[in-house]
From TrEMBL:
Keyword Thylakoid: no
Stretches for region Disordered: 807-849
Keywords of this entry: ATP-binding, Nucleotide-binding
SUPFAM superfamilies, per database record: P-loop containing nucleoside triphosphate hydrolases (SSF52540)
PANTHER family xref list: DNA TRANSLOCASE FTSK, SPORULATION PROTEIN RELATED
Binding site for ATP: 383-390
Sequence ranges assigned to domain FtsK in this UniProt record: 365-558
Pfam families: FtsK_SpoIIIE
Keyword Zinc-finger: no
Name under which the protein is recorded: FtsK/SpoIIIE domain-containing protein
Organism: Plantactinospora solaniradicis
Length: 909
């Protein structure tokens, strides 16, 4: 082995010296660090326990705890008297979480600061019974000790599907605390509400807790796979919340990291509890320390194991929650009666000449009036699902109907969503329909209500806006005293598609809102929180600028200006009413334009509501009729065919359905003697087949027995059963011939009067129906009372056959150019004055003046491009179940139709 003899050159010697110097310096530094560490360790090593001292300390801490957390906040809950009074002077600052036990026989209540200071986290979630017990007991203590109504709670609990909060259900029923959320969507809604509460977007200097309430978000367990972005939102809320009165009680924090990068830091400003077995360790509260380890040294938390409080006894929980709910009701409960004029004054005592007004709720003891006049012509109402929107509207509408005579106020009510908002205003019979004259012995109705749309189509909403626009045209020349109030519930649905209907609806809304202000036509638009509403509000030229009245119900803060947080955390039964377009105002300033009101649930006393409705109905002016009700999800029953008169007054009409229009009217095709008066139903499915069946029956009923002949052909096998049943039915009144394709060809020359009823007319072989004779029938048949009523499964064969029989086209007069140039019919400009669409003359079904054609086409389930191709122009049509598009070649107009219901027992399916 070679011995090292030191550096062998001057340069190596220098390098060696430098390395040795560095090593010596490192050694010295290490020795110094070790010495310093030993000194620190000596300083914080716990002094040997002096038992007496420990007992004294526990005693002192017990006394301190009773001062910091008196009564409900610190008492053992299993021994708490059920009669202990609820409520306290102010927001409780400290709360007990359990019992600290430094020695076997030395104990004191473990108390932590929460409200007004920061947050509390536990490292396990509500599946651990100790955590569930802790959360319930802390929540109960805070609710019982806080001044009534000052603490709002939002619960999140995914792992036990909300069971953690089950004992607090009476508070949810009372509207004091919404039911807990259990999934990611719910969590996001709670976070959004908390963010609204905190408003972190405001400059820090302007942040303050201007709420007189505190919002406590209790997370029992986070939804599985809560996304990092949402966790980050919780972290941000923890940082920003306390100044704004937002506090978090989060179990299961930090959540298990999804990846190494997504592990979460402890929540800032929180006291952390770590579970051990069977006790827990409690970290230092935010900004303070339980012990004093020395300056500049991190705190060590409470130097004693803590046994967390167990779930409070069920009877106690129940008693407290019920008492709080009852107090809430006693303090705030009002009834619809409180919003109505004194009954002794009688009905309809107010004049609508200068405007409408009603009481929408109470601010404290004071009734809050709100109205419709030039200054506050239209209202925008927002609230999440279940926020009491229907309740609020029912109050307003009954309030108005009790004050103003039906000659002074007419109501139009349309609901685009789930159809519960206006149930109150639908005088339903068992089958859902009211006779046309409104006579109904079963239910009363409000004489002010002209139309109700339940789960209405967008087309219905548009038709109503057109009607209101037309009314405003009339009022421009003939001013009207009677005011109109139109409520569009969930109006963003009307504007939901990026299409021509939305474009027209927007311009009509703008026009009605702008011109209605001084002409007595008023709007209430309501919406749940939706990005569509936010987008509408953000538009610079938004028609919502015409809506100075904003009513924010719980979850409806987005109808207010973004900087106005007055609606954050509203409980059920309250609303912020703002008459300045949702603008807020400086802190603490009295906002003359904004009130928080409480309003009653009118349905808590259904008898009183029914009596009021009955009173309004009983006093209705002579000749009043009930509202026209359009129920989007029902097929209207086919009206009874008029009894055949000895001398028929007019042509027989084929009734196909109800036009989606305001006012409602039947879609009736007159079958008069003029050439082309025939009807074709086009569509692949059974609905089209049923339509033909119903039409034939209805036509048969309009003729005296034996007056007409029916020739029925089924050219596709699937229609055979329907055709057979139809023949049997028709034969009870009229002569009927059942024919095949060959027989049909012969029947084209029927001398009349009669009907050729053909199922699956596209099912014939080419040429089976001779073009010459079909042309003659189409042109001359109506003159002798013969009409072709046919069903075609597809439009192509229909177009081909019609093209084959078409008369040679005239070279002038309204025939479209072969290159398709002509009027542009793609936008609202293609809309006729009667609310239907119009376009240029069609190509395939023959131009106006071409008599050898079928004038009336009814499309069921035919895609828009196919309809457009057939008609040779753009159409606005979305095929869907229960809807048809009726085309009238003579006027070149289309209308959306709800086909009449198939007669019960008639359908072969
Ligand atoms: N003022 C109130 N006080 C207490 N409870 C109320 C009040 N108003 C409504 N509620 C209750 O709240 C629930 C929801 O009310 P409502 O149907 O009016 O809400 P909504 O906003 O119209 O709901 P949705 O949009 O889902 O139809 C109902 O059970 C109702 O009884």
């Amino acid at each position: 082995m070679e011995t090292w003899r030191g550096p062998t050159s001057p340069a190596a010697t220098l390098r060696w010296r430098a390395a040795a110097g560095t090593a010596a310096a490192l050694h010295r530094r290490a020795a110094a660090t070790t010495a310093a560490a030993a000194a620190v360790l000596d300083a914080i090593r716990p002094a040997p326990a002096d038992q007496r001292e420990q007992h004294d300390l526990a005693e002192r801490l017990r006394a301190a705890a009773s001062l910091l957390a008196p009564g409900w906040l610190g008492a053992p809950l299993d021994a708490q008297s059920e009669d202990a009074p609820l409520g306290g002077p102010g927001v409780p600052a400290f709360v007990r979480i359990g019992i600290a036990q430094p020695l076997d026989d030395a104990r004191f209540p473990a108390v932590v600061p929460l409200l007004g200071t920061g947050h509390l986290t536990v490292d396990a979630d509500s599946r651990d019974p100790r955590v569930a017990g802790l959360l319930r007991s802390v929540l109960l203590r805070l609710l019982a000790a806080a001044p009534a109504g000052s603490l709002l709670v939002r619960g999140v609990d995914s792992a036990t599907a909300g069971q953690l909060f089950a004992p607090f259900a009476p508070l949810a029923d009372a509207g004091l605390m919404p039911p807990p959320v259990t999934d990611r969507t719910g969590l996001r809604a709670v976070l959004a509400e908390a963010e609204q509460w905190v408003r972190p977007t405001r400059p820090a200097t302007a942040r303050y807790n201007r709420h007189d309430r505190t919002l406590l978000v209790v997370v029992g367990s986070l939804p599985e796979l809560t996304e990092p972005a949402d966790l980050a939102r919780i972290g941000a809320l923890a940082r920003e919340g306390p100044e704004a009165g937002l506090h978090l009680l989060v179990a299961g924090w930090p959540p298990p990291p999804l990846t190494a990068e997504t592990s979460q830091a402890p929540l800032s400003r929180s006291t952390m509890i770590a579970l051990r077995n069977p006790y827990a360790l409690v970290g230092d509260p935010p900004g303070a320390s339980f012990g004093s380890p020395g300056p500049h040294l991190p705190g060590t938390g409470l130097n004693a194991p803590v046994f967390l409080d167990e779930s409070p006894p069920t009877p106690l929980l129940d008693r407290v929650c019920r008492d709080l709910a009852a107090r809430f009701h006693a303090d705030y409960r009002r009834t619809l009666d409180d919003l109505l004029p004194d009954p002794s004054d009688g009905l309809w005592t107010e004049s609508a000449a200068k405007g409408l007004g009603t009481t929408v709720g109470h601010a404290g003891e004071r009734p809050v009036p709100l109205g419709f006049d030039e200054r506050t012509p239209h209202w925008l109402v927002g609230g999440r699902a279940g926020a009491g929107k229907s309740a609020f509207l029912v109050n307003v509408l009954y309030g108005l109907c009790a004050r103003y005579h039906p000659d002074e106020l007419a109501l139009y009510l349309v609901d685009f969503a789930d159809g519960t908002a206006f149930t109150e205003f639908v005088p339903e019979r068992a089958d859902g329909f009211l006779p046309e004259d409104g006579a109904d012995s079963g239910r009363s109705w409000l004489p002010h209500v002209r139309a109700v749309g339940v789960q209405a189509d967008r087309e219905y909403g548009l038709a109503l806006l057109r009607e209101l626009d037309a009314e405003l045209d009339r009022r421009a020349t003939e001013p009207e005293q009677r005011r109109i109030l139109c409520v569009l519930d969930e109006f963003p649905t009307l504007l939901a598609e990026d299409d021509a209907l939305t474009a027209e609806a927007l311009s009509r809304l703008e026009s009605v809102a702008r011109r209605g202000r001084s002409a007595g036509v008023h709007l209430i638009l309501t919406s749940r929180p939706t990005p569509a509403l936010a987008a509408l509000r953000a538009r610079r030229d938004s028609f919502l600028a015409q809506f100075p009245v904003r009513v924010a119900l719980p979850g409806g803060a987005d109808v207010l200006e973004p900087a106005n947080d007055a609606a954050a955390g509203l409980p059920l039964g309250t609303a912020v009413v703002n008459t300045a377009g949702g603008l807020g105002g400086p802190r603490g300033a009295t906002r003359g334009h904004e009130r928080m009101v409480r309003f009653p649930d009118p349905h808590t006393d259904t008898d009183a509501l029914a009596m009021l409705r009955h009173r309004l109905w009983a006093d209705r002016p002579a000749g009043s009729t009930g509202p026209a009700v359009f129920t989007g999800y029902l097929a209207p029953p086919r009206p009874d065919a008029p009894e055949p008169a000895a001398e028929p007054a007019g042509p027989v009409v084929a009734l196909v359905g109800q036009v989606v229009e305001v006012p409602l009217r039947p879609a009736a095709v007159p079958l008069d003697p003029s050439p082309g008066r025939h009807l074709a139903v086009l569509g692949p499915g059974p609905a089209a087949e049923d339509m033909l069946d119903g039409l034939a029956r209805s036509l048969a009923a309009q003729h005296a027995p034996g007056d007409v002949r029916f020739v029925v052909a089924s050219l596709v096998p699937e229609a055979d059963p329907t055709a057979t049943a139809l023949c049997a039915e028709l034969a009870r009144r009229h002569p009927v011939d059942r024919v095949d394709a060959a027989g049909l060809a012969g029947a084209l020359d029927l001398t009349g009067p009669g009907y050729l009823v053909v199922f699956g007319m596209d099912g014939t072989a080419p040429g089976a129906v001779p073009a010459e004779r079909l042309r003659a029938l189409l042109r001359d048949g109506p003159g002798r009372g013969v009409h072709l009523i046919s069903w075609w499964r597809g439009v192509r064969r229909f177009a081909d056959q019609l093209a084959a029989v078409a008369e040679p086209e005239p070279t002038t007069d309204g025939v479209p150019e072969p290159d398709g140039t002509g009027p542009d019919h793609t936008g609202p400009g293609g809309t006729g004055p009667d609310g239907t669409e119009s376009g240029s003359a069609e190509r395939h079904t023959g131009a106006p003046g071409n008599a050898a054609t079928i004038d009336h086409l009814l499309f069921l389930d035919v895609p828009e491009p196919e309809v457009a191709r057939l008609l040779g122009r753009a159409v606005r049509w979305r095929p869907r179940s229960g809807r048809a598009l009726l085309y009238d070649r003579r006027t070149d107009r289309t209308s959306l139709v709800v086909p009449y219901a198939t007669p019960t027992g008639v359908s072969t399916r």
